[in-house]
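Please review this pair:
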Amino acid sequence: MKTKFVRPEIGSGGDGHTFPGATYPFGLVQPSPDTGREGYRYCAGYRYEDDRILGFSQTHLSGTGCGDLGDIRIMPFVGEASPNVSSAFRKETQFCTPGYYAVTLDDCGVRVEATAAAHTAVYRFTGVGAKAMRLLLDCQWGIGGKVLAKTILSSDVRVQGRRIVSGTNVRKHWVERRYSFVIETNRDFEVPVTLEPLSPDEKAPRLVLSFGEGNEPLVVKIGYSLVDEEGARRNMDAECSGFDFDTVRAAAEGEWERQLSRMDAEGTDDEKTNFYSALYRLLIQPANIADVDGRYRGADGEVRIAPSGRYYSTLSLWDTFRAAHPIHTLISSEMGDDFVETMLEHQKAAGFLPIWTLMGRDNQCMIGTHSVPVIVDWFLKTEAISRPAAPGGADAASRHARDRAFWEAAFASIKDSLTNLHEGRILEDWPVLDEYGYYPNDIVTSESVSRLLECCYDDWCAARMAERLGFADDAAFFLKRSRNWRNVVDPETHFVRGRDTKGNWTTPFNPLALGRNAGTGSDFTEGNAWQWTWHVLHEPEALIEAVGGKEVAGERLCRLFTIEADESETGTCDDVTGLMGQYCHGNEPSHHVIYLLRYADRAARQAELVRDVFEKFYVNKPDGLCGNDDCGQMSAWYLFSAMGFYPMNPASGEYVLGAPQLPKIVLHLPSGAGKTFAIIAKNLSPKNKYVNSVALNGVPLESFTIRHEDVLNGGELVFEMKS
């Protein structure tokens, strides 16, 4: 059983921003305890360090740097009702496993159990004995927002008889969104009591449901929909028609076991716990936000039918295009079509391809248009994967193949998003970029260098797709624009550096000074020049030459991992964590840099650094992650690096070799017929962390890269390790 090696608490302490509660693979709901809901510490609503639970809400983000969701809080209690009811709890009573969460609330003696289907949260409350159980239903609750009382814009909640409460809320924080719910209990409640609001700004009620005395467990199920209450009811009836908590739990655990079994890992129990916990975190999102009938609410607020019946959101693309989506392509490629369909449907509604979507709406909180590399990567790999037929659906292989018209339309969406200005698009001023060949920082006053570098990569991806489709003029245009990164490499300092409209370099210039996000006046996003200089994913050899050649670049790359600086030199940024020198493993722009060392002939140093990252920043304890997991990207880096290769350029079809960290990992490939790809690290040990040789299916490798097709063809990749 793979599920026994998953520890959901990893990342729920420190800066990981994960939650310990129940969820379903790619599910819409995540019933989980909340111990706080304001500020950066509580992006997921929970900190392992806390000892009081405020309630259990139904939706949570995993590993983000901004808080939202936390919809519909419920909290069992006995005695006097209060909107601020909470309870102490002890960690030894908390139990977490994929699809299940349990804890004892010490203040009232209630044992809380939670499980989840794709759209339905189910709770079981036991243990009050002769006392009458009561349940606080807080429809005003939510995570995040400077003025929490004002985040609910409208609310319509109704009690139906003695067992059902349903309603629809509109909430605005990271995005403005609408959600509907149906709550049903297995026991009658008395006429609910409505508590007085805590603020005149509140729009949603807090109800107290009283169930009287009795030893029968109270089971509460909550159906959820972004469309309407009828959708919430259909979702709940399809996934949990009765009140059999154990059946729902077994189904969730069974689906988790199926998903986790796409990869077999060997090693110590501690190593397998880290490995399968990373795989678990990867598979929490993106979330399928379509109802069971395929309806979803799009980026423009309109209700549509998803072509595949599935529509994915929580697309943290600035993070996940780097490794999370590439690993989905390897182990769950049946979702590739759905991701692309989702992105193209989003473009039809919003006018441009998605940037960072939450519950179907785009918050545009990051830079670049990184749905582009995800679409292009899938386009380039689509003929290499034979997709199995979907259960109950048409022949998925024919759907997977797609015709030329589909891909031409997809490219048209890419071209439009990367060349035309769109109403509502916050970032990217294409006319300025095309006029200057960079973003002048007296016009683009924040993140000018980082925005350019991210756009260059998207342009390179667009050029590859245009070339494959035979659109020569488009390919030439995007390829030329993808090389604009050269315009911000200062030949004197060999750092990337901001420039103004006259071509003057930013002065004074401190390559250690950290930037944050838009509005902060820095040329960099969540980083500094030391970190962003290496952000040219598509032309690593040219970058090496631009910063002085292999010897100079190699020395500077190695120095990146050792240079020390204090806050007086760097400033601070919440997302810059997991530092080794100025290498920042806790934030995504650094994730490829260890693999860039191979282009500077520093294989031994690369092997040392991979081991250091594993030992320091992925630890089997609640605060064992060095930064936000960012919707699975941190976990995806771990999974690839454990295997000994990484998609440094995610849309290139290549993986750069590293140094494997587990003795054997087997991928169960999506091509069917039981085909597998095994990665074996012979003689691996704490001392033997260096690579002596690598062979693919018995043939020694001359290069430090392998192709995606090499993996899909199956076989063995054997590393001979040495001291």
Q: What stands out?
A: Confidence is low (pLDDT under 50) at residues 384-400. The domain at 3-260 is CATH 2.70.98.10 (Beta-galactosidase; Chain A, domain 5).
